[in-house]
Amino acid sequence: MNDRNFLRTVIAGLTLAFSMGVSAQDVLTVADDKVGIGESTPLTLLHIKATTSTNTNYIRLQDATTTTWLLKTTGMEAFAFSKAGTGQNEFIVEADGDVKITGSFYSQGQQLNVPDYVFDPSYQLMPPEQLANFVAQNKHLPSVPSAAEIKEAGWINITEMQMTLLGKVEELTLYMLAQQKEIDELRSQIGMR
Predict the structure, then answer these.
(1) For the chain, which residues make up each domain, given as ranges?
(2) Is 72:57 a contact under the CB 8 Å cutoff?
(3) What is 114-133 written as a DSSP string?
(4) For 3-15, how does the pLDDT look when each residue is reduced to its tens digit (9 = 90+)?
(5) How many beta carbons lie within 10 A of that of residue 59, not counting itself?
(6) For site-directed labelling of 98, which of 9, 36, 78, 121 has its Cα 20 to 30 A away?
(7) What Cα–Cα distance (Å) separates residue 193 from each residue in 174, 178, 185, 188, 190?
């Protein structure tokens, strides 16, 4: 049998394997409704394994033009998406769950509640004294989850939190404008400009 290019079938185990190259390692195996690439006994529906330590372990995705993306392991207990030819990992998920991106992050949440309602004349800001009491008692802002709540949940909806924080920035703007109005009135009363 020529180990540079051979076909092996095992009827009993319903295994179909193709190998090409210097060794007789399986390049493609189909067994029990599972596909192995570089793996002769696939454990999942698609199991991809580098056959040597020098192989770049990745899936290449290419459109009809030249745009190519790679889904790959990084050798650092992580996997990444990178644009072929750039050498730059654009999106990385590390083993500890950390996610890193090199570009911008965009969210298209269907229920995005942008807090411009804060600027509606009917919106009632919490009076500063009441806000101060709330913060002193609860150690966090109203409508913002506490550290304990976030820890208990084990996760946080980043888009929701961004909208909550934007609402707080808009409320701060209203507080600042009210303070400036009060400062201007006081200056006017004492004859200052």
Answers:
(1) 1-52, 56-105, 116-189
(2) yes
(3) --GGGGSTT--PPPHHHHHH
(4) 444 444 444 344 5
(5) 13
(6) 36
(7) 22, 17, 10, 7, 9
